[in-house]
Amino acid sequence: MPRKQSRTGQRARAAQKATGGKYTELLRAEPGPHGAHREPVHVEPARRLAAHLRADFGTAGEKTARMVDAAVAWAVKDRELKHALLHTHGGLAARARLQPAVDEHAAGEVTVHDAPLVQAVHMVLEAATEEEEPVSAELLRAAADVLDRLVGASHIGNPAIHGVRAGGWLTEPRMVERTSTTTAPAAVVAAAALRTMREAARIPDEDELSDTDCMSTLQEAARFAHTAADLAARPAA
Question: What pTM was computed for the model?
């Protein structure tokens, strides 16, 4: 640690003492170079995902789109909370003012992690394996971007890892490996992304090594998803 800590670091340490939060998370809640308040990295693609779910699936996609909306709202409120704790003298009072809004969004399917977004991505990839009614390249791109941002580069507190492990929804008996005869390139690669997500879900939650293995597997799934989006964007020959 440097002898003289920056003001940003000092504020983060003060907020950590007051709230017990993680120093690195509080540090990342700093405003941008012009004082603008940065949003979590997955918020922009998640908004695109919700919009394209509604455009592609209409009323059938509304429930999933609302789940995505709720996850976005929670993430933004959580960042606002951290920002308020860092940049107001009455940090605890600010936290109390924001908490009802945070609780409101956390009361439904979305919790303090963004794991439900992984389920939304999985739903899009499943739909993409159906050659008869292909999904749009824009929807696939948004789903791939969301998964990529959630996986990130660290296994610590990783919402994508939590998402594939939560509740056994990817490993329970009814979730069998898909066998498909389609040869549509985007559908084939989307199916590969699905299988890779299921492979990640089967990695046991044992230690940091297994978490790192799970993260690396999910990064591969995100690459498959991006490739599927690229293929879907190409005009049919």
Answer: 0.71
193: its two tokens: 């992304």
Distance CA 42, CA 119 (A): 15
Of residues 111 and 156, more confidence is placed in 156
Distance CA 185, CA 176 (A): 22
> Nearest to residue 76, comparing CAs of 54, 105, 49?
105
| Pairwise CA distance, residues 105 & 69, whole Å | 10
Give the tokens for residue 27.
């540090």
Report CA 8 to chain centroid distance, whole Å: 27
The full 3-state SS of the chain, as one line of letters, equals CCCCCCHHHHHHHHHHHHHCCCHHHHHHCCCCCCCCCCCCCCHHHHHHHHHHHHHHHHHHHHHHHHHHHHHHHHHHHHHHHHHHHHHCCCHHHHHHHHHHHHHHHHCCCCCCCCCHHHHHHHHHHHHHCCCCCCCCHHHHHHHHHHHHHHHCCCCCCCHHHHHHHHHHCCCCCCCCCCCCCCCCHHHHHHHHHHHHHHHHHCCCCCCHHHHHHHHHHHHHHHHHHHHHHHHHHCCCC
**Over the stretch 156-199, which tens digit does the pLDDT of each residue have?**
888 899 889 887 888 876 555 555 567 889 999 999 999 999 99
